[in-house]
Amino acid sequence: MKKFGILAAILLIIVGLIFIPKIIKNEGDQDVKFKTIETSEAPTKIQELIPRYLGEERALACKVNNEIYVIVTRGEKRTAGYSVKLEKITKVDSNKNFELVAYAKYKDPKHDEMVAQIITYPVVVVKTELEKLPDKIKLEVEYED
C-alpha cells in the first residue's frame, strides 16, 4: 500500500513539473474580437496585397491606417464550391510578445454536387480590434461536413 502511495506522489510530481511551467509561461489566451468584411470593403492596400497570397493556404495579419486586418487564403481551387470562414481568433501572450491563432472552417463541395468548372481562390478578410501586429500568426483548420 505504501508503494502505491509513493508511486502516486512521484507521478504527481512529474506531471506537475511538466505542466506547471507551461501554465505559468502562458499568461492566458484571449479571444480577439473581429468583424468579417467583404474584400471590396477592405482598404485599397489590403485589396492590392491579397492577389500576392491567393495561391497559398495561409493566414496573415496586416496593419493599415492603425487598424489590424487578418486575411486567410485557401489557395487555388479548380472548381467553385470551396469556401473559408474565420470562426475565432485567439491572442496568445508570452513575455512582451504575442501570437495569433486563426481558427478557420473550410467547406468543400460535395462529391455529387454540380459545381462550375472555374478556378477559384477562397479568401476571407476580417478587421480586428487589435492595436498592434502579432509576432506570428498560426492557422488552425477544421473542415465542415
Helix/strand layout:
Blueprint: H1 2-25, E1 29-31, E2 34-37, H2 44-53, E3 57-64, E4 67-74, E5 83-94, E6 97-107, E7 123-128, E8 136-143
Parallel strand pairs: 6-8
Antiparallel strand pairs: 1-5, 2-7, 3-4, 4-7, 5-6
Helix percent reads: 10-25%
The tally of strands reads 8
Summing up helix and strand content along with how strands pair, one would put the structural category as alpha+beta
Mean pLDDT: 89
Total count of domains: 1
Low-confidence stretches: none
Strand order of the largest sheet: 1-5-6-8
Distance separating the two termini: 51 Å
Domain PrcB C-terminal: 68-129
Protein name: PrcB C-terminal domain-containing protein
InterPro entries: PrcB_C_dom (IPR025748)
Keywords: Membrane, Transmembrane, Transmembrane helix
Keywords:
single chain, 145 residues, alpha+beta, four-stranded mixed beta sheet, four-stranded antiparallel beta sheet, 2 helices, 8 strands, 23% helix, flat
